[in-house]
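Ticket #4471: structure export looks truncated?
Reporter: QA, pipeline team
Priority: medium

Steps to reproduce: submit the single chain below to the structure queue and open the exported record.
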Amino acid sequence: MLGLKLLTDPRWANIAEGNLEEILTDHAWCEQKAASNAISLITNNSEHEDLVHELTAIAIEEMEHFKMVIDIIKERGYTLGRERKDDYVGQLMKFSKKDGSRNMAFIDRLLFAAMIEARSCERFRVLSQNIQDKELAQFYYDLMVSEANHYTTFLNFARKYSVDVDVEKRWKEWLDFEGKLIQSYGNKEAIHG
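Actual output as written to the record:
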């Protein structure tokens, strides 16, 4: 359904579970950044009333997820560490087109968001199916469903608002790029790492 070219090796869940404080801290900051990205899209494209409405809901939901992760961190006696640099997201950002029309940049920003949501959804599935901690397995299953909805929302807006971009062709380029990129990841306690 997500179209990802390379699925995460289930053994990555063992790496994540081996340092829950680290994976939870990384996850918390991913949720905060997702909320910020939705707000940025709203700010730069406020003429689209339906987009403003839907992305406001996503931004709120992402901040609710941020709080949920922080609550888990606190309940387990961990500490929320400093924000983590996400090299995976940085590489995706470099792939984004910024030198075309305003519409092209807008569509690519939506596809960028869809790509991150798709990979996050897939990683949450791996965690939900492979970690021993039943509470966290259920938590990640619930978030997997949410991320799938976000992925669909961003992709559908790209299709709806494209003026000068062949969205299906560009989405295939995103999937191909990410399929190569993700080969370098999956070996540390980070949602995209």
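Status: closed, not a bug. The export was complete when the record was re-opened. Leaving a note from the reviewer for reference: The radius of gyration is 16 Å.
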